[in-house]
Amino acid sequence: MAKWTRQGRKKRRSRSSPFLGSMIIIGGIFYIGYHVLLGVIAFFDWLENQLSRITMTYWLLIVSFVSFALYMIIKMKIKTNKRLREQNQREQLLQIQARGQIEKLKTIDPFDFEIFISKFFTLKGFEATVTRKTGDGGKDIILRKGNEIFIVECKRYNTPKVSRPDIQKFHSAIIDSKAKEGFFVTTGIFTQPALKYVEDKPIQLIDGTKLEQLIAELSDEIGSL
Predict the structure, then answer these.
(1) pLDDT for 92-101, tens place per residue?
(2) pTM for this structure?
(3) How far is CA 221 from each of CA 60, 199, 213, 224, rounded to the nearest angstrom?
(4) Buried/exposed 106-124: b ≥16 CB within 10 Å, e otherwise
(5) Which residues, including other chains, have CB under 8 Å from residue 138's CB and lie 6 or more apart?
(6) Local structure of residue 132 (DSSP, 8 states)
(7) For strand 141-145 and strand 148-155, is the pairing parallel, antiparallel, or unpaired?
């Protein structure tokens, strides 16, 4: 009988031990949290007391210092962005110069040629977006400058000439896009009827020879920055 009673007591003690441990942990958490809260309140009371002692002169000095620090940070950020932008322009220019020979341009993939031309117009101050490879609506690149839209059609030709029907189709794309002007760029040449057609149209024709000339001019412009 005594043996059974001792075992029962042991079982009751073992059941109450987890509950007692949990209560101790919870009490400890509340105790620590309470004192942390008191510390935070005391800190803000101290901070309020210190701030109330600051005179208007000190406030002006603090505001002036913070404003000057922000000005220097913004100025350094602008200067850094400008340096990175100029570095990027020079890197793009080197790429254009390296691939600027028309004979080399005639051998690259047509879509790579479109990307190449988009970089050229980006360096000319436009925001350029290359359209998808198929179903582009008669425009390979969309250019933006301010609120104005321009479009570009690229033809990386080896031997064919760009004819009047090609330009007429491009003119329709300009109208549909409500673009201010269009640039038709090719590594080849334009037929006489094509040249005649654009005389009263908002279209600039850029053949292989003209493209090399523009790349050279761009090189001089950026080189003088």
Answers:
(1) 665 665 555 6
(2) 0.59
(3) 47, 28, 12, 5
(4) eeeeeeebbbbbbbbbbbe
(5) 153, 169, 170, 172, 173, 176
(6) P
(7) antiparallel
